[in-house]
C-alpha cells in the first residue's frame, strides 16, 4: 500500500489503492515469475478442479441470533479460534457489501499510521530524554528503539538503527549493552526483575464471531474502494480495463473493430495472456485450501486488470535492461583481463557471461526449481491419473514428495519413504497412544496434574540436564520451590492474558456497534502482580545468557580452521 506517513484512508477517494484482501489481490495480481513459466513443465500431472462448497445456512442463522443466556466456560472457550487441529466455524469467502463503519475506518487509519512510523503512536509511555555516555537519547528515539527491539529482536542492530534514523549501529549496541549489564547486576544482587512475566504484553485472542464481524467491516470498506478503482480503470482503459478470458480471446483473434485504447496495451505483444489466465485458473488460484481457491471466492473466472499487466510490462523491460547492462559489463571485464595474455581474444559475449550476470542480480537461471516446489507451496492436489469423479473412484492425490520427484531433473534427488506395511498405520498407533494417555489422565484432578507436572520438571532438571547437580534433599526442596513459583507465575500470566483478551474483544464489539451473538464470558481481573525473587536460573544455568559465553570468530578464521588438517 503506497501511503505517506500519517496519511489517512478514505474509501471515497479515488487516488488511493484499495485495501488489500485475498480475493481482490488473487484476481488482480499475478506474480511475474509465475506468469512466465512454460506449460510443458507441469503437463505430466493433472490438477483437480475443486467444486464450490455449499455452506450450511444454520451458520448464518446462529450468527444473527441473539442469545443472552449464561454460557459456561467450556462454551466460551469453544468460540475461541482453535490453536490446533480443532474445527473452525466456517465463514463464506465471498465479501458482503455491508454498512460502512466509521469506527472501524478510524481503527484502520491508526494501524496505517503505526505501520508507517514503525511504532504504536497512541500508547502511553514513561520515556524521558537522557544522556547515556556521550550520546543523548530523546523520548521519541527511545520509543522507536524499544518498538524496534520488540518487533525485530535485539540482535538485528542494522534494522534497529535504520528505524531510529538518528542513531548509528554502535550507539544502538551501546544502549542494549547497558541494559544487559543492568539486568545482570540485578540478578547478581538477588533483586527482583524490573518486570514480571505477566507484565509482558501478549497478543490478544479473539473469538471467531468477533473475527468474522471484523472481516465484514473490512469487506464493506474494500468493496467500496474496489468499486472506485474499477471506475477509474474503466475511465482510463475503456472496455478492456479488465482482461477476462473473453476479451483476451477477442484481442488475440484480431477483432475487426478495434477500440483506440487497444493500441495502448503494448504488453499484449509480449505476454501470452491466455496462458497467464489459464495458469491462474488451474494452478496459482486452484489451491486445495478454500480461501485460496477462486471457485470459492467468485463466480467469475480469474482475470487481470490492464494497469496491472502494464506494470508487469514495465517490470519486464526494467529487468531486461539491467540484465543486458550487467552482461555487457561482465563480458567487458572478462575480455580486458584476457587481452593482456591473449591478444586474439574476440569481443564476443559468451553464455557464461550471461549466467554470471543472472547470478549477480539474484535471479534464477531457470524455472525448474520453482515448478518443482509449486505443488507444496500452493497446496495443490495433484493426481497421476485424472480422477473420474464417480463414487467408485478411489484415486488419491500424490504426496508432495512424489510430485517433486516427478518434476525433478534427477530421480535420485528425493527418496519417498514407503508406507508401513504392518497392518497398523502410524496414525492408528499415535491415536491409540493418545487414547491410552487420555484415559489414564481422566481420573487425575487438577491438583494431581499440577503435582505430576512439578515432579516431571524436577526430574528433568536432576536427571536429564547437564547441570550435574547432586541429588540431596535440600537441593530437591529448593528446586521444587522455584519450579512451583515459576509455574504459579506462568498461570497468573495466563489469567492476565485472558483478562486482556476479554477487554480487547469488548472494545471491538463496541467499536463495531454490534451486539455479540452470545453473552461473552467475563474474565475477572487477576489482581495485583505477583512478584518473587525465586527463579530456577539462580541455581543452574538455563542457557539464556548464551551470548556472553559464545566466542565470536570472523569468516576468515573459520575458513583457515577448515583448511587446516
Automatic annotation (TrEMBL):
Compositionally biased residues, Acidic residues: 57-73, 431-440
Coiled-coil residues: none
Database matches in Gene3D superfamilies: Homeodomain-like
CC per GO annotation: RNA polymerase I upstream activating factor complex
InterPro entries associated with the record: Homeodomain-like_sf, Rrn5
Biological processes annotated in GO: nucleolar large rRNA transcription by RNA polymerase I; transcription initiation at RNA polymerase I promoter
Gene Ontology MF terms in the entry: rDNA binding; RNA polymerase I general transcription initiation factor activity
Chain residue ranges for the region called Disordered: 1-100, 410-451
SUPFAM superfamilies linked to this entry: Homeodomain-like
This protein's name: RNA polymerase I-specific transcription initiation factor rrn5
Organism: Clonostachys rhizophaga
Amino acid at each position: 500500500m503506497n501511503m505517506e506517513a500519517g496519511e489517512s484512508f478514505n474509501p471515497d477517494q479515488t487516488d488511493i489503492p484499495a485495501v488489500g484482501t485475498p480475493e481482490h489481490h488473487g484476481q488482480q495480481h499475478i506474480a511475474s515469475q509465475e506468469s512466465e513459466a512454460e506449460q510443458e513443465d507441469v503437463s505430466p500431472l493433472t490438477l483437480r478442479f475443486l467444486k464450490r462448497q455449499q455452506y450450511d445456512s444454520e451458520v448464518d442463522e446462529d450468527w444473527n441470533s441473539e442469545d443472552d443466556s449464561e454460557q459456561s466456560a467450556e462454551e466460551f472457550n469453544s468460540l475461541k479460534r482453535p490453536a490446533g487441529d480443532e474445527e473452525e466455524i466456517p465463514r463464506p469467502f465471498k465479501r458482503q457489501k455491508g454498512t460502512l463503519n466509521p469506527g472501524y475506518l478510524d481503527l484502520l487509519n491508526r494501524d496505517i499510521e503505526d505501520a508507517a512510523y514503525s511504532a504504536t503512536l497512541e500508547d502511553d509511555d514513561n520515556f524521558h530524554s537522557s544522556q547515556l555516555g556521550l550520546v543523548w537519547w530523546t523520548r521519541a528515539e527511545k520509543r522507536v528503539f524499544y518498538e524496534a527491539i520488540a518487533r525485530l529482536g535485539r540482535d538485528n542492530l542494522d534494522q534497529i538503527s535504520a528505524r531510529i534514523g538518528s542513531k548509528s549501529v554502535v550507539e544502538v549496541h551501546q544502549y542494549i549493552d547497558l541494559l544487559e549489564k543492568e539486568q545482570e547486576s540485578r540478578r547478581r544482587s538477588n533483586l527482583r526483575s524490573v518486570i514480571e512475566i505477566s507484565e509482558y504484553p501478549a497478543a490478544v485472542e479473539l473469538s471467531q464471531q468477533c473475527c468474522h464481524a471484523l472481516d465484514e467491516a473490512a469487506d464493506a470498506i474494500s468493496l467500496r474502494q474496489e468499486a472506485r478503482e474499477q471506475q477509474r480503470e474503466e475511465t482510463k482503459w475503456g472496455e478492456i480495463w479488465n482482461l477476462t478470458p473473453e476479451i483476451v480471446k477477442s484481442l488475440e483473434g484480431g477483432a475487426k473493430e478495434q477500440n483506440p485504447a487497444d493500441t495502448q496495451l503494448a504488453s499484449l505483444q509480449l505476454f501470452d495472456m491466455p496462458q497467464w489466465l489459464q495458469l491462474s485458473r488451474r494452478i496459482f488460484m486452484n489451491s486445495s485450501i478454500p480461501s485460496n481457491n477462486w471457485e470459492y471466492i467468485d463466480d467469475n473466472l480469474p482475470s487481470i486488470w490492464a494497469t496491472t499487466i502494464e506494470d508487469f510490462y514495465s517490470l519486464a523491460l526494467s529487468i531486461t535492461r539491467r540484465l543486458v547492462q550487467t552482461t555487457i559489463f561482465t563480458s567487458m571485464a572478462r575480455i580486458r583481463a584476457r587481452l593482456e595474455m591473449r591478444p586474439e581474444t574476440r569481443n564476443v559475449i559468451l553464455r557464461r557471461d550471461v549466467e554470471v550476470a543472472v547470478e549477480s542480480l539474484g535471479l534464477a537461471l531457470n524455472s525448474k526449481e520453482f515448478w518443482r516446489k509449486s505443488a507444496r507451496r500452493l497446496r495443490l492436489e495433484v493426481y497421476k491419473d485424472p480422477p473420474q469423479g464417480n463414487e467408485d473412484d478411489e484415486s488419491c492425490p500424490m504426496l508432495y514428495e512424489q510430485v517433486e520427484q516427478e518434476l525433478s531433473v534427477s530421480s535420485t534427488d528425493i527418496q519417498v519413504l514407503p508406507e508401513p506395511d504392518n497392518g497398523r498405520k502410524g496414525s492408528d498407533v499415535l491415536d491409540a497412544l493418545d487414547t491410552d494417555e487420555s484415559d489414564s489422565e481422566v481420573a487425575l484432578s487438577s491438583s494431581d496434574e499440577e503435582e505430576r507436572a512439578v515432579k516431571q520438571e524436577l526430574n528433568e532438571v536432576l536427571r536429564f540436564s547437564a547441570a550435574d547437580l547432586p541429588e540431596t534433599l535440600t537441593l530437591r526442596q529448593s528446586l521444587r520451590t522455584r519450579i512451583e513459583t515459576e509455574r504459579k507465575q506462568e498461570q497468573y500470566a495466563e489469567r492476565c492474558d485472558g483478562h486482556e483478551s476479554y477487554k480487547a474483544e469488548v472494545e471491538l464489539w463496541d467499536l463495531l456497534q454490534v451486539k455479540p451473538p452470545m453473552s461473552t464470558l467475563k474474565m475477572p481481573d487477576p489482581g495485583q502482580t505477583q512478584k518473587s525473587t525465586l527463579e530456577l536460573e539462580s541455581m543452574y544455568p538455563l542457557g539464556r545468557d548464551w551470548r556472553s559465553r559464545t566466542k565470536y570468530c570472523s569468516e576468515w578464521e573459520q575458513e583457515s580452521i577448515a583448511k587446516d588438517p
